[in-house]
């Protein structure tokens, strides 16, 4: 499970273009600036493949200054409002104080964030090349109904990890072909007779199986690593993290969750909406009194600790966060490992996004109610208390968002004079405060905040907030809803939620009427200054609503019939002895460009990728490239050809060194993404977040 209680985005993925020269970028990042192909670049997570490191002094200074500047901007604005713009009495004064109180709401949360984000330094244990004598590690991959293109790379990559371990595939779909694939890859296949409690029940069944086998003398497992079936582990997944367990008090190691399907609905052209959560908020919690919670995947847990708390929690649909509370209550420690260790699939469409976020929100409401998180706990530090309370209550933001829209509407229509300042002066002061505040907040969040995406997705999450509020009222039984990973039958655009459409109509209707009233065209009681005081909020809200609705309906986020994400990587390949150029590749197939007259003619061909075993593919179609006479041949993997799925998976995610020009050793081919405009040059950010001795 993931959380992003600020709606931000990660600051990576841009091709390196900055005021600093390439020589100034740390050695760890050098070479990554090379373009993979004329229209591609590397995803942001590729720049975080190295070990965690301290934040640079420059980045820390900017963050602290930015936070204080943001607070100062709000305080100065509120001082100006109270001192120079308040009406003298009656309903006007009351309405003005209501509006000012509303404008002051962000202040407390921002001040707390300055404290919690004062330091986001990260550390790491020494890499582990061999397990200590007697230690047994098992990688667990729960799965349900995902297609082969989703689960094959995860299983193949998990089996190839070092040091020596076991890979268990926990199939709640009872699929014979999954068992056959596991046998081919060297993974252990597990299915259970009763499919209760979804993922939590699936994991608990395996923990019970391990306990029974240990009781029968088969040896017990010490550490389990958990990967969602669409999260493909990179070679460092175990070697970089197992060293944490040298500390006998650590029960959980959580890594960041990053996503390789660029262009997903929550993608901002960088790495996705959850960048703030994993690269700032979780990093800031890497302290004994503020340990992070389990996010479901890309994680390792001490089995003894899980058994001590009764296994995986099953009485909520967010078993990961709820289980962490049990571990903290029992005195165990949790840590965060800030390094790209695995890459997964983000929700591709608005429907998938809304389904996933609704599940997280409703599950958080269950935890809030069952654990009574609003009450202080003796077993929780003040920091954990704040993080868990704010992290659950945050899911009600949709209700707050609507209130933010409705309150200025009510005040505006009431005709109250909420400001004595002239419209031009008020607008100028407000805009200046807003711009300075946003600059400071971006600095505080280390540039991991992409405002357009943040606003658009906040609008789209409005139904989530009301679903959470309704659950708190009804306390109805919830079922675990799996986020679909397979392609759809038809390509279909999404529609914005009805409540968003209604809000757009209301806000712009009120704005138009207020404008007409200010011009004297219709009856209107408020002064021009009072109209602007409420109107600027409504205008910003209306722009955000329209932008959010437009994003939902964008063709880029329509459903797709494909089961696998295509990677825009170029490489010289050979098919049946004929040399061509790879156009793109996915787990299920590839497209290759050939000069006219050299196209292979066989229906079943053999593709030779650089550094990989030959792959047998079936030709689907051949088309002429629009800008030349070259032929582009599209091919797919032969059904149930586990060797072909394995070869492509390993080439994409555990890419052999030197296989692709422009991708340095240690960076997988799946990091290639089509070039898009990004909010900030990554080169500066890499330098800023590097150790001082490397800058």
UniProtKB/TrEMBL annotation:
<keyword id="KW-0812">Transmembrane</keyword>
<dbReference type="Pfam" id="PF13632">
    <property type="entry name" value="Glyco_trans_2_3"/>
</dbReference>
<feature type="domain" description="Glycosyltransferase 2-like">
    <location>
        <begin position="223"/>
        <end position="435"/>
    </location>
</feature>
<feature type="transmembrane region" description="Helical">
    <location>
        <begin position="95"/>
        <end position="116"/>
    </location>
</feature>
<dbReference type="InterPro" id="IPR001173">
    <property type="entry name" value="Glyco_trans_2-like"/>
</dbReference>
<feature type="transmembrane region" description="Helical">
    <location>
        <begin position="421"/>
        <end position="440"/>
    </location>
</feature>
<keyword id="KW-0328">Glycosyltransferase</keyword>
<dbReference type="InterPro" id="IPR029044">
    <property type="entry name" value="Nucleotide-diphossugar_trans"/>
</dbReference>
<feature type="transmembrane region" description="Helical">
    <location>
        <begin position="528"/>
        <end position="550"/>
    </location>
</feature>
<dbReference type="InterPro" id="IPR050321">
    <property type="entry name" value="Glycosyltr_2/OpgH_subfam"/>
</dbReference>
<protein>
    <submittedName>
        <fullName>Cellulose synthase catalytic subunit protein</fullName>
    </submittedName>
</protein>
<keyword id="KW-0808">Transferase</keyword>
<keyword id="KW-0472">Membrane</keyword>
<keyword id="KW-1133">Transmembrane helix</keyword>
<dbReference type="GO" id="GO:0005886">
    <property type="term" value="C:plasma membrane"/>
</dbReference>
<dbReference type="GO" id="GO:0016758">
    <property type="term" value="F:hexosyltransferase activity"/>
</dbReference>
<feature type="transmembrane region" description="Helical">
    <location>
        <begin position="62"/>
        <end position="80"/>
    </location>
</feature>
<feature type="transmembrane region" description="Helical">
    <location>
        <begin position="393"/>
        <end position="415"/>
    </location>
</feature>
<feature type="transmembrane region" description="Helical">
    <location>
        <begin position="499"/>
        <end position="522"/>
    </location>
</feature>
């Amino acid at each position: 499970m993931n959380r992003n209680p600020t709606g931000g985005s990660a600051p990576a993925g841009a091709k390196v273009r900055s005021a600093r020269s390439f020589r100034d970028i740390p050695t760890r990042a050098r070479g990554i600036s090379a373009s993979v192909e004329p229209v591609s670049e590397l995803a942001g997570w590729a720049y975080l493949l190295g070990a965690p490191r301290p934040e640079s002094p420059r980045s820390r200074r900017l963050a602290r200054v930015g936070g204080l500047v943001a607070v100062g901007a709000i305080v100065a604005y509120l001082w100006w409002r109270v001192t120079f713009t308040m009406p003298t009495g009656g309903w006007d004064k009351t309405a003005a104080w209501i509006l000012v109180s509303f404008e002051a709401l962000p202040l407390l949360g921002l001040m707390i964030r300055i404290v919690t984000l004062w330091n986001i330094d990260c550390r790491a244990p020494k890499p582990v090349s061999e397990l200590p004598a007697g230690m047994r590690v098992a990688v667990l991959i729960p799965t349900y109904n995902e297609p082969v293109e989703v689960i094959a790379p995860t299983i193949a990559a998990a089996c190839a990890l070092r040091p020596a371990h076991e890979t268990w595939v926990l199939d709640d779909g009872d699929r014979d072909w999954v068992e056959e694939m596991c046998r081919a890859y060297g993974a252990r296949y597990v299915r259970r007779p009763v499919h209760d409690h979804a993922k939590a029940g699936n994991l608990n069944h395996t923990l019970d199986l391990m306990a029974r086998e240990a009781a029968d003398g088969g040896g017990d497992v010490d550490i389990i690593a958990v990967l969602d079936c669409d999260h493909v582990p990179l070679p460092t997944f175990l070697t970089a993290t197992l060293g944490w367990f040298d500390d006998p008090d650590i029960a959980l190691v959580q890594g960041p969750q990053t996503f390789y399907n660029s262009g997903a609905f929550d993608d901002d052209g960088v790495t996705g909406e959850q960048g703030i959560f994993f690269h700032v908020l979780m990093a800031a919690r890497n302290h004994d009194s503020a340990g992070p919670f389990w996010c479901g995947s890309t994680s390792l847990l001490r089995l003894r600790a899980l058994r001590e708390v009764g296994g995986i929690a099953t009485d909520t649909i967010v078993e990961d966060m709820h289980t962490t509370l049990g571990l903290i209550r029992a005195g165990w420690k949790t840590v965060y490992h800030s390094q790209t260790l695995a890459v997964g699939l983000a929700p591709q469409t608005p429907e998938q996004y809304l389904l996933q976020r609704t599940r997280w929100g409703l599950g958080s409401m269950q935890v809030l109610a069952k654990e009574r998180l609003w009450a202080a706990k003796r077993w929780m530090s003040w920091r954990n208390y704040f993080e868990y309370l704010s992290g659950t209550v945050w899911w009600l933001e949709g209700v707050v968002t609507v209130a933010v829209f409705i309150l200025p509407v009510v005040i505006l229509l009431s005709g109250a004079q909420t400001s004595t300042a002239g419209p031009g002066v008020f607008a100028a002061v407000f805009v200046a405060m807003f711009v300075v505040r946003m600059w400071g907040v971006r600095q505080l969040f280390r540039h991991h905040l992409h405002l357009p995406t943040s606003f658009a997705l906040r609008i789209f999450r409005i139904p989530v907030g009301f679903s959470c509020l309704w659950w708190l009222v009804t306390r109805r039984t919830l079922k675990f809803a799996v986020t679909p990973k397979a392609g759809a039958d038809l390509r279909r655009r999404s529609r914005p939620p009805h409540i968003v459409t209604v809000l757009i109509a209301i806000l712009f209707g009120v704005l138009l009427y207020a404008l007409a009233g200010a011009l004297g065209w219709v009856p209107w009681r408020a002064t021009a200054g009072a109209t602007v005081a409420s109107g600027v909020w409504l205008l910003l809200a209306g722009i955000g609503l329209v932008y959010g609705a437009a994003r939902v309906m964008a063709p880029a986020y329509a459903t797709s019939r494909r089961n696998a994400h295509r990677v825009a990587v170029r490489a010289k390949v050979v098919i049946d002895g004929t040399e061509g150029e790879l156009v793109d590749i996915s787990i299920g197939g590839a497209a290759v460009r050939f000069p006219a007259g050299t196209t292979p003619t066989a229906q079943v061909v053999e593709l030779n990728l650089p550094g990989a075993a030959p792959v047998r593919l079936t030709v689907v179609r051949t088309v002429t490239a629009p800008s030349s006479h070259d032929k582009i041949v599209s091919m797919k993997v032969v059904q149930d050809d586990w060797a072909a799925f394995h070869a492509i998976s390993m080439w994409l995610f555990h890419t052999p060194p030197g296989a692709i020009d422009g991708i340095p050793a240690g960076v997988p081919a799946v990091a290639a993404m089509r070039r898009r405009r990004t909010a900030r040059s990554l080169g500066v950010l890499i330098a800023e977040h590097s150790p001082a001795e490397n800058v």
